[in-house]
Design a protein that fits this description.
Length: about 400
């Protein structure tokens, strides 16, 4: 998408009236590359399009998420993006990931992780039908662009955690590789290699629940390399959000060899998050090291910035408790510091072509940025970008252009 087709010039950004905000936001067609709202509504029985967040069943998964998630002071701590919020916020689309949360704790075959993928696909398709034409399922970047042309928003499938492919071990490797083809045929944009567990594919980088199951060298296993190769073969982006630094480096080396981009659907920079604070914090492990960022950018890929303040700053209140809240101006400044970090690596011409938007709203995050109460407030982030003097093309690139570019490269 370019400025000519959107009818907006870069000079119209700063000090623009409200109608220009709406025009830029619409041209940007924001695509959240990791939104957990449909996972939350599926397991708790919420009516996504009704948007009242009334659960019709008890869910131990939702209980666990809310019990263990970091808790900022801003509210709400969950129930961030209902169907009405999605429409009111002017979302162009979102990648709705399937999860197998318990299977991070209890390995297959005691629980069948593949069923979570099958159930999720059916549920997302039902939500699309229930939208009465407002939303369509998009299986490629070109289908996203067609939906935008028709005035519709998009649901995009994705899988968070390769442990969902089936039981671990040598006996299951062939059919797990075959299942990657099924995931791609369903239209998924990406496979996240890890979630919250080390697997026989790759070592996790953040909060693994099975720390004893390490991989020699800390990266991809021999089978893990086959998984990455197979993802490229079938047209799946390799999402490295929860993977160890060495795993990211290993995967990106394969992507470079295949001339394909790697991706992070909801990440952060460890250096930017740490800032000037010297005390260590476990949440810094969620962010990516300089080496990991360099590896992803070197493939031509992009990194979506998570919008959870807890993972964007390492600061503390006078009583020693971590500060888990930050406003939208802080988020915009974080993007700018991240872009500066990439620029200093001197490996790409334009660092802004390698940053995208992946909030992780309705996931296990601290809270939304201060100034937002739900996804209906997404235009406030666009306004903060404009207030910082961002040109229109940068806003378009970060919100959707960069993601669509890398997705189209793996699935022409």
């Amino acid at each position: 998408m370019d400025l000519a087709s959107s009818g907006i010039s870069e000079t119209s950004v700063t000090d623009a009236p409200d109608h220009t905000l709406d025009a830029i936001h619409a041209a940007a067609y924001p695509i959240d590359t990791h939104l957990d709202s449909l996972f939350l509504s599926r397991v708790a029985g919420y009516d996504f399009w009704k948007g009242d967040w009334k659960a019709n069943r008890r869910s131990p998964v939702v209980w666990l998420i809310r019990k263990t998630s970091p808790r900022g002071r801003n509210r709400p701590l969950s129930d961030h993006v209902s169907g009405p919020d999605f429409l009111a916020g002017g979302y162009g689309g979102a990648c709705f990931s399937a999860h197998a949360l318990w299977e991070n704790l209890i390995p297959a075959p005691l629980m069948d992780p593949w069923k979570n993928w099958v159930d999720h696909c059916s549920y997302v398709e039902a939500v699309v039908v229930q939208s009465n034409g407002k939303m369509r399922l998009a299986r490629s970047a070109s289908e996203v662009r067609a939906a935008r042309q028709d005035g519709q928003c998009c649901a995009i499938l994705s899988m968070e955690g390769a442990h969902m492919l089936g039981p671990q071990g040598a006996k299951s490797q062939v059919f797990r590789l075959d299942r990657l083809g099924e995931v791609a045929r369903a239209g998924a944009a990406y496979l996240t290699l890890n979630h919250f567990s080390h697997t026989d594919i790759s070592e996790a980088g953040y909060a693994p629940v099975n720390p004893w199951r390490r991989i020699e060298g800390g990266g991809l296993s021999a089978f893990g390399r086959q998984v990455v190769e197979r993802c490229i073969d079938v047209g799946l982006l390799v999402d490295l959000t929860h993977t160890s630094t060495q795993g990211i480096i290993d995967a990106c080396a394969i992507c470079i060899g295949r001339n394909m981009p790697a991706f992070a659907s909801h990440g952060a920079s460890r250096r930017v998050t740490q800032g000037t604070e010297t005390r260590p914090s476990r949440h810094l492990d969620r962010a990516m090291s300089d080496e990991a960022i360099r590896a992803i950018v070197s493939t031509g890929g992009c990194i979506s910035v998570i919008l959870a303040p807890y993972f964007l700053q390492n600061t503390y209140y006078p009583d020693g408790k971590p500060n888990m809240d930050a406003d939208l101006a802080f988020v915009v400044a974080y993007y700018e510091a991240f872009a500066q970090q990439i620029a200093e690596m001197k490996i790409v011409e334009d660092p802004w072509k390698h940053l995208s938007f992946g909030s992780d709203f309705d996931g296990g995050i601290s809270s939304l940025p201060t100034g937002m109460q739900s996804g209906a407030d997404l235009r406030k982030l666009t306004q903060a970008m404009m207030d910082a003097g961002w040109p229109a093309q940068r806003i378009i690139d970060v919100y959707s252009g960069n993601f669509l570019r890398v997705w189209q490269r793996v699935r022409p």
